[in-house]
Design goal:
CATH architecture of the largest domain: 2-Layer Sandwich
Largest sheet: 3 strands, parallel
Helix content: 25-40%
CATH topology of the largest domain: Ribosomal Protein S5, domain 2
Number of strands: 7
CATH class of the largest domain: Alpha Beta
Radius of gyration: 24 Å
Number of helices: 6
Order of helices and strands: HHEEEHEHEHEEH
Number of domains: 2
Shape: elongated
Strand content: 5-15%
Length: about 160
């Protein structure tokens, strides 16, 4: 991870640590950027490490330290929820992640915001799912008058549905 990502968030990084990351998911390799950065900052004593075990983290870091959305937020949130952990992820992924029932989702805009949350200086606001809207009810083709029913089946609505 280049030092400029952490320096953009005002974290000094004296040496550039070498981290070999096996491409587990070649389509979305950036989802581990946030956890790797937090691990480096915790190992160097720049953020407290005692709260890291309470959360799962995912997010791609831009060169400015901002968090970019990642794919697979729903599955990762489900796993974090099963482990009874909060999930910190990019703000754009929060609506998808909040669909998991009883999940604790914390959206963040940047690495600096996540670090402030972990240090207890500024708390992230928990994202809650908006209530589901009512689904429109459409008429059933079997309710159309004048359709002949043969053996309990209607052929005309099927023809209309196929056409």
């Amino acid at each position: 991870m280049p030092r400029c990502r952490m320096r953009a968030s005002n974290f000094p990084c004296a040496a550039s640590p070498s981290i070999w990351r096996r491409p587990t998911c070649p389509r979305n390799p950036g989802r581990f950027d946030l956890p790797i950065a937090l691990g480096i900052l915790a190992a160097s004593g720049q953020i407290p490490s005692d709260k890291l075990g309470d959360f799962e983290f995912a997010g791609e870091l831009a060169l400015t330290g901002d968090l970019r959305p990642v794919r697979g937020a729903l599955a990762m949130t489900l796993a974090a929820s099963r482990d009874r952990r909060g999930f910190v992820l990019p703000q754009d992924n929060a609506p998808e992640a909040a669909l998991v029932e009883d999940a604790v989702v914390y959206p963040a805009r940047s690495l600096l915001q996540v670090c402030a949350h972990l240090a207890g200086r500024d708390s992230l606001t928990r994202h809650t799912a908006k209530p589901a809207t009512a689904v429109d009810v459409y008429p059933d083709m079997l309710d159309v008058k004048g359709q002949a029913h043969t053996n309990g089946h209607s052929r005309s609505p099927r023809r209309v549905a196929i056409a």
